[in-house]
Amino acid sequence: MEVIKMNIIIVKDSSEGGKKASKLFYDACANGAKVFGLATGSTPVTTYQHLVKSKIDFSKCISINLDEYVGLKPTDEQSYRYYMEKNLFEFKPFKRSYLPQGDAANAEEEVKRYDKVIADNPIDLQLLGIGRNGHIGFNEPGSSFDLTTHKVALTPSTIAANARFFEDEEDVPKYAYSMGIGSIMKSKSIILEAFGDNKADAVAKMIEGPVTEECPASVLQKHSNVTVIVDEAAAANLKK
Ligand SMILES: N[C@@H]1[C@@H](O)[C@H](O)[C@@H](COP(=O)(O)O)O[C@@H]1O
To answer: What are the Glucosamine/galactosamine-6-phosphate isomerase domain coordinates in residue numbering (predicted)?
Structure first.
């Protein structure tokens, strides 16, 4: 385990990474954490698998997800709500689980509603993945570090990267609701996971590059309690 400014844990593979992250969830719970910020994508799958197998009890806890595609209903198989139900909530229910509502009639009202959810339930532990271009949540390069929840136009690279979950690239929604970086940075502690060589560039920029809106994850250098869990492939471009 090497400490730069963030706490960096290098693991063999995503399974070991998920095990470490689930242990950190477990410890947080034991220390009284009640509000968990959750992420989707392929990266946190192993964390959820380990949590499902664990004795952890979220029934008095609250979860708040980072983001959701605009236009998808909670029952759509590609929606993040559906992903969360299938990967975690069906096995480990929370007292209340919040996600932005993809099919909300009014986007402005929806982002306000979500900001209130976050303000009313300060996040104790936030889980993050990272996009190949350094995005966190759906905060794409260039997003202001001050943003709270907002509707975002996805970049072509994010649409291409997420096309694997859809039948056709055309079907990938072009917009999403995302918790903003300003809100993510208010979480008391953060775990960011990255596995695989296609994340190596983003991981190096996040940890060793300048803090810049061009690499949204680089803002985490300014947070006092971040643990980065990476496999060897994702850590390959780190100098130290
Ligand atoms: N909005 C999500 C992010 O929350 C996720 O961290 C990232 C990486 O996804 P994956 O874990 O599938 O590589 O991409 C998506 O666009």
So the answer is: 33-227
176 domain-assigned = yes
What is the C-alpha to C-alpha distance for residues 114 and 227, in angstroms, rounded to an integer?
A: 26
* Number of other residues whose CB lies within 10 A of the CB of residue 237: 16
Given this model, what pLDDT does residue 16 score? 98
Domain total in the chain:
1
- Give the type of residue at 53: K
- pLDDT tens digits for 175-212? 999 999 999 999 999 999 999 999 999 999 999 999 99
Q: How far apart are CA 105 and CA 107, in angstroms?
A: 7
**Which ligand 1 atom lies nearest to the CA of residue 130?**
6
Active site residue 110: no
Q: Is the pTM of this model over 0.90?
A: yes
- CATH code, domain with 126: 3.40.50.1360
Q: Is residue 105 part of a domain?
A: yes
**51 half-sphere exposure, CB direction, 13 A CA radius:** 28
Question: Is the CB of residue 50 less than 8 Å from the CB of residue 87?
Answer: no
Which among 110, 140, 193, 231 is annotated as catalytic? 140
Name which residue sits closest to atom 8 of ligand 1, judged by CA: 131
Range of 30's domain? 2-231
Is the C-beta atom of 100 inside 6 A of ligand 1?
no
* Residue 7 annotated among the catalytic residues of the structure: no
Known active-site residue 108: no
**Residue 112 within a domain:** yes
- Considering only CA atoms, which residue is closest to atom 14 of ligand 1? 131
